[in-house]
Each structure stands twice: as C-alpha cells, then as structure tokens.
Design goal:
Elements: H1 9-27, E1 33-38, E2 41-46, H2 47-50, H3 62-71, H4 79-82
C-alpha cells in the first residue's frame, strides 16, 4: 500500500488481513493469485483476471489533478500537453 501520509491503525489491520490471506492461499498450494475484497469478503483473485484489461488515466482529468494536489506531486507535463484535445 502506497500512501502520502503515515499509516493509521485501520491501515495496519487491513495490510495484516491481506498478508494473512496471501499466506493462507500460498500454503494451500495456490499460485498466480492476489487477494482482495470482493463483495465485502476476502477472495483469491487470479493475476490473469486482474491484468486482462488495461485502464488508462487521463492526465488532463480533474480527478488526476485532485490526486496530484492531495499528494503534493508535480505534474511533469508541458503546458501544451495540458491543453484538452480538440476534434
């Protein structure tokens, strides 16, 4: 888990739960999986399923600007790259 702020107690609990689930899956003989919440329950998720669709981030989108502002990261874009494309 990557965060811009120090972790708190619920982060530690969540990471512990993920780690324990991963170890249980590995000890049960599963390979090529990750763990995570699915419908409020922890599940083994095949890596192939996670990586089958590629998402793209629109760097000119407002949500991306909010992420950069909340994490105090520079955008590294030129002013010409920040202009929206015209069709």
């Amino acid at each position: 888990m990557i965060r811009a702020i120090p972790s708190n107690a619920s982060d530690n609990i969540y990471c512990t739960l993920l780690a324990q689930s991963a170890v249980h899956g590995a000890m049960a003989g599963y390979t090529g999986f990750t763990v995570g919440p699915v419908n409020s329950r922890h599940a083994y998720i095949p890596i192939a399923r996670v990586t089958e669709v590629q998402n793209t981030v629109k760097v000119t989108d407002r949500m991306w600007a909010r992420l950069l502002a909340s994490t105090n990261q520079p955008s590294f874009l030129n002013s010409s790259e920040m202009l929206p494309e015209t069709v």
